Structure formats: C-alpha cells, structure tokens
Amino acid sequence: MRLAALALLVLAARLRAAAPPDLPTIHTGGTDYVSVTDAGAALGLRLERIPSASALLLKEGSKPVAKLVERSRDTDVAGLRVFLGDPVVERGGTFYVSRADFLYHLLPRLRPDLCGIPPNVPHLIVVDAGHGGVDHGTENPRLKIMEKTYTLDVALRLRKLLEAAGYKVMMMREKDVTVPVEGRAALANAWSPDLFVSIHFNSTYPNTKTAGVEIMSFPSRGQRSTDSWSPGQKNDAWNVDSPINAFAPWNTILGSFLHRHLLAALHDGDRGEKFEHLKVLGNLNCPGILVEPAFISSDVEGVSLGAPAYRDAIAGAILSGIQDYTELVRSLHPSVLPAPAAPRPANTVPPFSAVPRAVPTRPGGGP
What we know:
Elements: H1 2-15, E1 26-28, E2 31-35, H2 36-43, E3 46-50, E4 55-60, E5 63-69, E6 74-77, E7 80-83, E8 89-91, E9 94-98, H3 99-110, E10 124-129, E11 139-140, E12 145-146, H4 147-164, E13 168-171, H5 181-190, E14 195-199, E15 213-217, H6 248-266, E16 270-275, H7 279-282, E17 288-292, H8 299-304, H9 308-332
Helix pairs in contact: 1-9, 3-6, 4-9, 6-9
C-alpha cells in the first residue's frame, strides 16, 4: 500500500496541477451524469465490461483501479470501498456516473493532478476530539466505556505525533469539557487552519458484532447522505453549497489517505468512505474529514480500545495519512518549486495485531 501511495505522489509531482476535464453531460433522474467512456478517456484509463456482474472495470494497463456496478453506489476505487453519492446507471450499453461523483469522488482518487489549484500545504491542523463533557457520545454498557473518553485520548496522542513531525496543532478540546457541535467549525475557522480532522468511534449497540473503519465526509451539493438511501429514509440532499464544498476534491484525497492507513494499521474490515451532513464539517473554511476507526459497541474492537497500543496505532495511522496528504498537496502546488526529497522518518507506531481479551482500562491508566 505504501508503494502505491508513493507512486501516486511521484505521478502527481510529475504532472502538477491542471484544471478538471469538462465532459459532456446527460440529465436523468434529476441528476447530471457523464459517461464512463468519456471519464476513462479523460483519466487515461481503459474500460473492461463484466457482463455477468453488470459491472465495469477501469484499468490502468492490466491493473484494475476502479469497479463500477450498475444501479449501485458501492464501489471499489484503488482497493478501497467507496460509496458514491448517486447510483451508477446504464443507458444503451453505456455506463454513467453522476458528474459530482466524477469530479469530487473518482477524479481525486485516480488523478489528483486534474483537480485544479490545491489548497494550502498543511501547517496548522485542528484536531477535534468528538463529544465531551455532558455529551458522552456512544457507549458500551457491558464494557462500561464511553466514546468521549477514547476520542480525547487518541486526539492527545495524535497531537504529540503531529507536533513531533513539525505541524502546529490546535485542539478543539484538551479535557473532558462540553464543546457544542454547532460551534466547532466556527472555532476552528477562527484559527485559520489548513486542515481539520475529527475523531469519533462508531456504534451499532446492541449489535456487538459489527466492526471496521469508516470515513465520513460532507456531501456535495445536491447529493444525499449515505444512510438516506436506506429503505424508508427520506432524500436529505441540500441544493445549496456549504463552505466545505469548496474543498470537495481535497476532502476526498485526505479521507482516502486516512482510510488506507487506518485499515493497514488496525487490520479491520473496510466499512467504506461515506457522506453525512455533519455540523462539525459543513461550515469549515478548510479541507476536513471525520474518522471512525472502530466500533465501540464491538466485542472485539471495544476491548481493543482499552489497549494503549491500539490507540497509538490509530493516532499513528492518522498522522501517516496527513503526511501523505501534505506531500501530495506540496507536489501539486504551483507556488512550490520541486526540491530534493528529504528523508522522512518512518512511523514508529506499529500496526496493532494483538487483541486483548480483558475488560479495557480507562485511558490515562497507561502510557
């Protein structure tokens, strides 16, 4: 995986930033779509049909880099599970993806050099420990653990790693205090950050079996949250832009790097990259993403969270994702001249593999 990320960075550095391609569109079901044939040509990829699965592969030479399935939003892009904002459709033997999905969810993952002028090279990062104070977040009654405890613990570990790597860090909270979710974006904006990462943990309690990594970003204008596609749910699309939509491709790139590193570090299942109209993200004036590295309700992951090594692995994976994003943005930035590559210290936090079976201890009781 690391080799693939480095190859992407080398490619981006060679190509530098360019304007996104303007492809012909068709209008169907109230949504603008572009043909995958045109998209593949713009990306320099070839197409291969899988008639038995009503699916289409986008390939770089002989290597598949994306798989699209008719009438589905659940895709595989560069080996990661990605939920599109609209289903793939087929018309007259041609596959189509929504224009928003092409520009903001496929293009950034496959050709970041075509996403236009990038945002600032990250220097100041806001780390948001989800919940806190009277807001406990999700809970696991059997293990007697709360989300707010572990989000803060991981955030503090991440701050140490980021500062050691040369970043400036602002913390949304450093203690168990209440910070209203509605005001977090405004507080972050006051610091003029280059990046925002919100740390949370998932739950399906009383289901204790579901586990894995999820990455959440803010939907593009006119696109629904992922959960709103579930049976019985209403269309929750917004037909106005939120401030964070100005950074849509870069949110995707950041989320993909974090996604890949969290999966590699935790060896967890891939729950995918999804969308939600999250108050903590919508009004940001910088790229931002929310990570849910594990399920606090899980019999396995809930216990694992009690191990300092597991929380170190989460923080280390987030650091690695931010570093990869930083390197990519720097390579694409027109104001930055290419320079000899400086040796990058290896992430000393090892992937977590041992799963403790005892009831977890409270963060703070260990290193």
